[in-house]
Fold this protein.
Amino acid sequence: MNENLRQLVEISAIDKQIDEYNPQIQKINAKLFAKKDEIDKLDKQIDDFEDAIVKITNLISDTNRQIAEHNERIKKITSRSASLKKEKEISAVQSEEILTKEQLESLNEDITRNETLIATKQSDLKTLKEQKQNLQTQLKEIQKEVELSLKEIENNKADLYKAKDEILTNINQKVLSFYEKIRKWAKNTAVVPMRKQACYGCFMHINDKVFASVLRSDEITTCPHCGRILYSELPVNDVSEALAKKPVKKTTAKKSTSKTTTKKASTKAKVEK
């Protein structure tokens, strides 16, 4: 196999291995992010409960103030009623006293109801905080797992980059630029094998001439359909047999007439050693 082609096959394989770690990293981090989201949602619930408790506490304080005012009013009504003589005035004061006591009773009921509500919310708040504590413990464990997994991946990637750098120090820069140009759009299928006389990038059938060129591997040959770099996976001993089965047909050039003839350009791109 052409040395430049061999290097491209190796670099392509390394690039693919490096990129394959990206979804693994995303999957590892996803577990961590999911647990953090759980804690964030729990924090929001805790904040809501704490705000609600503060509001209810303030409401109870305001209700207690109103109760004190009503008790003071009842004292004044009782004191005033003692000096009244007329039945009409006494009846009016009694009605006022009854209304004030009813209001007082309603306020006391509000206090009881809100105190029960606070107790319930405080109990729920305690449960939420316990859940948060458990989630934080789980988060710490996940963080340890993530750190170990990412460290292992980074070590593996470092080995791959080292292997790639060794190849890059010896590769023809024009060949490398050619590969990088294709890789911009083909990603990790810039260099693909030829199998059953088809490009394994676009899966299109390859003509006999390109087929023979790829088998010989004397130069870098691209797919005439998609432009990816092709290589043969056949062992060297099997190449001669494969070429014998697919002889390349010689084509004779036709004489051009007075009319302009259009030549079909070959899409095979070659990069010399």
User: Anything to note?
Assistant: The mean pLDDT is 86.
